[in-house]
Amino acid sequence: MKNLVMSAILLLALATTSCKIDQNREAELPEVDVDVDTKAGQLPSYDVDWADVNVGTRTTMVKVPKVVIVMEEEEVEVPYVDVDMPDDMGDKMEQTLMVEAEVTEMEHKMDIKEIRATGSTLYVISELKATDTKIGDKNMRVSDQVTLNAPELDVRYYIVGDKPR
């Protein structure tokens, strides 16, 4: 469910910033006589090249933290987003957006909550929450990731939540 919501948010963000509009005809207003005779006018027309976005999941190998604080590779479904931008936006490439944090004392959970696109910058917003499980003075790495097929973009990562000690 989290992946579906995150994918829908990314789709909405990309849909609002990922189109190219070319005006191909100028506007022409009608001429009006005083006796209310008019000539036909002409409204502008536009060609709109819109991004073609495919969102889904696929199975891949990722490192998953275990309670014993060792990383093991497991096959899990990870969300991916496939974005076809207008031609002059560049070639798309597969890239993994991963956010990580190292925590102590308590186990934490990391979730990517939102991905926003503005111009050529992606903002990955994640939430870090403590769980009820204590890990003492051991260190634990927590992470979340999404795979994106899109032109190369600048990526900024933000983690929201209480700062671990």
Which helices and strands, and how do they pair?
Blueprint: H1 2-17, E1 19-23, E2 46-50, E3 52-65, E4 71-84, E5 92-118, E6 121-151, E7 154-161
Parallel strand pairs: 4-6, 6-7
Antiparallel strand pairs: 1-2, 3-4, 5-6
Signal peptide: 1-21
Keywords: Signal
Textual characterization of the structure:
This protein is mainly beta. The chain has one domain. 10% of the residues lie in helices and 63% in strands. The strands form two sheets. Strands 3, 4, 5, 6 and 7 form a five-stranded mixed beta sheet that branches. Strands 1-2 form a two-stranded antiparallel sheet. Strand 5 (92-118) and strand 6 (121-151) form a beta hairpin. The radius of gyration is 24 Å and the shape is elongated. The mean pLDDT is 81.
The N- to C-terminal Cα distance equals 30 Å
Order of helices and strands: HEEEEEEE
**Percent of residues in β-strands:** over 45%
Helix content: under 10%
**What is the approximate shape?**
elongated
Q: What's the structural domain tally? A: 1
* Classification by helices and strands: mainly beta
> For this entry, what is the oligomeric state of its chains?
single chain
Q: What's the mean pLDDT score? A: 81
Q: Report the strand count.
A: 7
What's the alpha carbon Rg, rounded to whole Å?
A: 24 Å
The major pleated sheet works out as: 5 strands, mixed
Q: pLDDT below 50 for ≥5 consecutive residues: which ranges?
A: none
Put simply, the count of helices is 1
